[in-house]
Write a structure and sequence with these properties.
three-stranded antiparallel sheet; 7 helices; 7 strands; about 35% helix; four-stranded mixed sheet
């Protein structure tokens, strides 16, 4: 007695899913053929190093603490979000500097460029240089409560330069760098964070900024003060 010969399908749902996944991977590989794996990075604690990039010469330096750089021709990158200051053309050039044997002409997109080149900066500048010395921190004082002008409030204002004539009086402040160049946690960092382009020196002092911090930032070309 002969049995009917019905074709047997040995393909399982798992096999079908695996085949589809392989096809997707093949397609993705074809569309990203120019994207290379991120360069091998050194183990540096994030946030402890600031990178300085010269877009024209492609020089990259790293600093522990406040970076020593020229805002007119160089860019300070403190964290991954700071990569947006660099053009994709510069990032491609930096990548090719690391991998000259496998140069690329572009990244898949901006996100891929930033993801690949944030660790790439560590490869280009693995040994941080000493940062610019920060100003001596003032003795910690108890913050005065908001209240009508009292002796304590007047004393605090005077220590910030508001109680005497300053060379900055009546002038406006403009930032020359996008990222805060001061070391996080210092008085200078807090003062710089208060600055808004176009604000007056008096507003800066009223919000808690310190005259000596502003003078330091002007000297380092992090900000400029202009006016009468």
């Amino acid at each position: 007695m002969s049995e009917s010969s019905t074709p047997i399908n040995d393909t399982t749902p798992a096999d079908t899913a695996a085949t589809e996944q392989e096809q997707e991977q093949t397609t993705e590989s074809a569309t990203t053929e120019q994207e290379q794996p991120a360069p091998k990075r050194t183990r540096v604690k994030r946030g402890s190093v600031t990178y300085v990039v010269n877009p024209k010469t492609l020089e990259v330096r790293s600093y522990k603490g406040n970076p020593d750089f020229n805002p007119a021709s160089e860019i300070a990158v403190l964290n991954p979000s700071g990569m947006s200051q660099l053009s994709t053309q510069v990032l491609v050039a930096l990548y090719n500097k690391i991998r000259p044997e496998k140069p690329i002409t572009k990244f898949r997109d901006r996100a891929a460029a930033d993801k690949a080149m944030w660790p790439g900066l560590e490869v280009l500048a693995p040994k941080p240089l000493p940062g610019v010395a920060a100003m001596p921190a003032a003795k910690k004082k108890t913050a005065a409560k908001k209240a009508p002008a009292t002796k304590t409030a007047r004393k605090t204002a005077a220590s910030n330069g508001a109680g005497r004539t300053s060379a900055f009086s009546g002038k406006t402040i403009t930032k020359l760098v996008d990222e805060n160049p001061r070391r996080e946690g210092t008085f200078g960092y807090k003062s710089f964070a208060l600055i808004k382009n176009g604000m007056t020196y008096e507003d800066y002092i009223a919000k808690g900024g310190r005259r000596q911090d502003l003078a330091w930032d002007v000297d380092r070309k992090f900000v400029k003060v202009s006016g009468k």
